[in-house]
């Protein structure tokens, strides 16, 4: 893997954009041409300015900061709220480099909607998830009609600083992965919540119940990552014939757990399509 990226501008850096920005800095990747970030407030800009090698611009002090940030950037990461994307693109579009790659972090805004506003510029849509904030993310990326293999490779390298990257096919691929890795952390937290409740039902206090449940999930995940075996086989190895685990798993299966996860994923996918239409 190459150890550098071309000049990058983060236009807006909320929790996700800020996490990716920090991931790039922590990775030690050399940025040829600099790393610039804009935010509305001076307080947020001052916080990000502490990061090594980052030029941080406060829009309340520098109203044309977005234009300044993108003018020399090869990669432009759009990290503003979806409702602000249209105005932002109208602002920066005339000032983008011809070879710029615009990377969207905005949920519900399609590749076509970006391309319509940006003309001939390459666009890549991304779907990072919240574990990216601790360097353990899974990010889906999809290139638009003008994104080359080189463009995709550069964006992949950017997101690999905060975890794993999966290339998917267009908006449908982004919507699909959003139902798994994008929403998935919430599913895991929900399962941990319920396991905590089950532990408390068995008489453990709140702190101990959480310690047991969270530790069980992190331990099982670590085991999965350390072993070449599929999760189904690891599950079978825990499930002794006629034992306690087998009895519990039978309850889950009787409740239609597989169908429940499919229906939840379908509901999330349908909502992603609704968001795109609303956008």
TrEMBL record:
One of its GO terms (molecular function) is pyrroline-5-carboxylate reductase activity. InterPro entries: 6-PGluconate_DH-like_C_sf, NAD(P)-bd_dom_sf, P5C_Rdtase_cat_N, P5CR-like_CS, P5CR_dimer, Pyrroline-COOH_reductase. One of its GO terms (biological process) is L-proline biosynthetic process. NADPH binds at residue 66. Residues 8-108 form the Pyrroline-5-carboxylate reductase catalytic N-terminal domain. Its main location: cytoplasm. Residues 173-275 form the Pyrroline-5-carboxylate reductase dimerisation domain. It comes from the Bacteria. Catalyzes the reduction of 1-pyrroline-5-carboxylate (PCA) to L-proline. This is Pyrroline-5-carboxylate reductase. The lineage of its organism: Bacteria, Bacillati, Actinomycetota, Actinomycetes, Micrococcales.
């Amino acid at each position: 893997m190459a150890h550098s990226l071309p000049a990058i501008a983060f236009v807006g850096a909320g929790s996700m954009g800020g996490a990716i920005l920090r991931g790039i800095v922590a990775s030690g990747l050399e940025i040829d041409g600099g790393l610039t970030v804009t935010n509305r407030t001076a307080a947020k800009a001052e916080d990000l300015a502490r990061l090594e090698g980052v030029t941080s611009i406060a829009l309340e002090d520098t109203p044309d900061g977005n234009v300044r940030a993108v003018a020399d950037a090869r990669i432009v990461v759009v990290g503003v709220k979806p409702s602000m994307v249209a105005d932002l693109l109208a602002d920066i579009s005339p000032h983008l480099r011809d070879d710029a790659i615009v990377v969207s972090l905005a949920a519900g805004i399609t590749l076509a909607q970006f391309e319509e506003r940006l003309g001939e510029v390459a666009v890549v849509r991304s779907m990072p998830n919240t574990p990216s904030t601790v360097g353990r993310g899974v990010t889906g990326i999809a290139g638009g009609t003008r994104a080359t293999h080189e463009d995709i490779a550069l964006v992949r390298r950017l997101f690999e600083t905060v975890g794993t990257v999966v290339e998917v096919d267009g908006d449908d691929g982004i919507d699909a992965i959003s139902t798994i890795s994008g929403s998935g952390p919430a599913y895991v937290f929900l399962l941990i919540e319920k396991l905590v409740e089950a532990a408390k039902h068995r008489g453990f206090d709140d702190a101990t119940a959480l310690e047991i449940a969270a530790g069980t999930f992190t331990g099982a995940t670590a085991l999965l990552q350390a072993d070449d075996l599929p999760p189904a086989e690891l599950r079978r190895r825990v499930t002794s014939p006629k034992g306690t685990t087998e009895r519990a798993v039978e309850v889950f299966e009787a409740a239609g757990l597989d169908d429940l996860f499919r229906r939840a994923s379908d509901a999330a996918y349908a909502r992603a399509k609704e968001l795109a239409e609303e956008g």
